[in-house]
From TrEMBL:
Residues 143-435 form the Exostosin GT47 domain. This is Exostosin GT47 domain-containing protein. It comes from Effrenium voratum. Keywords: Signal. InterPro entries: Exostosin, Exostosin_GT47. The keyword Iron-sulfur does not apply. It comes from the Eukaryota.
């Protein structure tokens, strides 16, 4: 297999020609350019990444890689970067790391030529900003006197593949701990034991059913969590990145363990496999929210994951307060487009669609390009964040990064960090059954008559929800910290940086 460090050539003319060679057709660079350009604007279908990765693997197998670099260095860098997740699937994470290191070397050596050949290379994918953390190339500081033992599990073996999308908190918390200064390999000195399982990812990508997950967790607790019984699971931490606890039998096996969860009222079903459009009618009959499953003295709500690519695009496209032309926005699905919403108490989404055509409101379904959506919410003062299948909504965190004030339409939502963040100072919560038109009229009055209040609510506290933030030493508004509680907003969504009462109780 490739050793990235030995194939770079001396810098010479021609590295941006991209004309093709005897072994590499110019068409390869044409496709690489088109996909790279599209990646700057929107998410591209998976098959395009497969095509670029296959081209890279072919270059490596044929021995054409050195010549390809000499002809089109940044084209090779683009192929290598797109090959990283597919390399993990085929060859494992260590080989994927080799390809990413090659990309970094090419970028360092030839990155200044990014537009020298008449084409501006993008040199990133939607996932790539997280690769240094995931691959252990950026050591993390805990900044707390804690020792965490991290288990190895079979369902947490593909961090790159699982690192995109709103459920990727299960990857980033794991990888942060794995590569942080608080990790210990000595269980005798551990304060806590973290159990990584990429449940949402393997259920989606590997088609695991609820029964498969239940059996996996049972075997895990009984046979692999060596130190679980020492404290009866009280010092073991599990993370749930979706609206369910993906271990249906959790109450029989891990009732006293610590939970990090995006949902404070998880959905429980008599058959969890009802989560599909094909069985949508069964959802209402067999699924309900569990209001007692989440225990506030030991469990903690964490934000959903928003990838750095999206965060940066939204921050780039957001308009200043004075230039925002829309009172409020919502572009998303309702029960007319997704049948399962009909059975999940999400009629508020349909109510929002009734505001279509109202002056100053941008209401409708999804944009074809994600950056069009980012641009639109960056022009809005308020953005509706209605209930989804669960009470939590990743839209809540997305709109914050666009500088849009979230209007939370989810009656029983659990909000992250509500023990120290003043949510009413930067968001608005409204009863679901009164979404229109009373809410619309209220927002119109705020924009017309309370301009300073609306301006003050914008762009506050969002670093607390950014899994990629490294603004250490900043306070809630991004300014230098003046008190210890506001310190270290960076990666604050990770429990190690939170004033969690349970953590203080067990470690002091």
């Amino acid at each position: 297999m490739l050793r990235a460090s030995i194939i770079l050539l001396p810098l010479a003319a021609g590295f941006t020609d991209c004309l093709g060679t005897e072994l590499v057709a110019q068409d390869v660079w044409t496709v690489a350019r088109e996909v790279d350009k599209a990646l700057n604007l929107t998410h591209v279908p998976r098959e395009y990444g497969v095509e670029l990765s296959n081209a890279f693997f072919a270059l490596e197998r044929s021995g054409a890689l050195p010549g390809a670099i000499e002809d089109c260095a940044l084209g090779v860098a683009t192929l290598a970067l797109n090959a990283v997740p597919f390399a993990e699937l085929r060859f494992g994470t260590l080989q994927a790391k080799e390809y990413f290191l090659l990309f970094e070397q090419l970028q360092r050596k030839y990155g200044h030529l990014w537009n020298a050949g008449g084409f501006a290379w993008n040199l990133q994918t939607h996932q790539s900003a997280g690769y240094p953390l995931i691959l252990g190339l950026k050591p993390q500081s805990c900044e707390r006197d804690l020792k965490i033992y991290v288990y190895d599990t079979d369902f947490a073996s593909k961090p790159i593949v699982c690192s995109q999308g709103m459920f990727a908190s299960e990857v980033f918390v794991h990888q942060f701990l794995l590569h942080s200064s608080c990790r210990t390999t000595n269980p005798q000195e551990a304060d806590f034991f973290f159990v990584p399982v990429y449940a949402a990812c393997v259920m989606t990508k590997e088609k695991k059913l609820a029964g498969d997950m239940d059996q996996f967790y049972k075997n895990l607790v009984r046979e692999e969590l060596t130190y679980f019984e020492d404290q009866g699971g009280l010092d073991h931490i599990f993370l749930w990145s979706s609206e369910t606890y993906d271990f249906p039998s959790w109450l029989d096996y891990i009732p006293d363990s610590l939970f990090l969860s995006v949902e404070a009222a998880p959905i429980e079903c008599t058959d969890f496999d009802f989560f599909s459009e094909e069985t949508a009618d069964n959802f209402g009959a067999h699924c309900k929210h569990c209001y007692w499953c989440f225990t506030r003295w030991k469990d903690y709500v964490i934000p959903g994951f928003v990838e750095k690519w999206s965060v940066e695009k939204m921050q780039l496209l957001q308009k200043p307060h004075e230039e925002r032309t829309y009172t409020a926005c919502y572009h998303g699905a309702d029960s007319d487009s997704l049948a399962i919403y009909l059975y999940a108490n999400t009629t508020v989404r349909n109510d929002l669609q009734s505001l279509r055509g109202r002056p100053g409101f941008s209401i409708g379904y999804r944009f074809s390009r994600i950056t069009e959506y980012f641009e639109r919410i960056g022009e809005c003062h308020f953005c509706f964040a209605p209930k989804g299948l669960g009470y939590w909504s990743n839209r809540l965190y997305e709109v914050l990064f666009a500088g849009c004030i979230p209007v939370i339409l989810s009656d029983h939502i659990g909000l992250p960090f509500d023990d120290f963040l003043d949510w009413p100072s930067f968001s608005l919560k409204w009863p679901m059954n009164q979404a229109a038109p009373a809410l619309a009229e209220h927002l119109e009055r705020l924009v017309a008559n309370r301009k300073e209040l609306v301006k003050d609510m914008l762009v506050k506290n969002r670093c607390w929800f950014d899994y990629n933030s490294e603004d250490s030493g900043r306070n809630l508004d991004g300014q230098p910290a003046s008190d210890s509680r506001a310190h270290n907003c960076s990666r604050a969504c990770l429990f190690l940086r939170m004033p969690h009462p349970c953590m203080w109780l067990l470690t002091n």
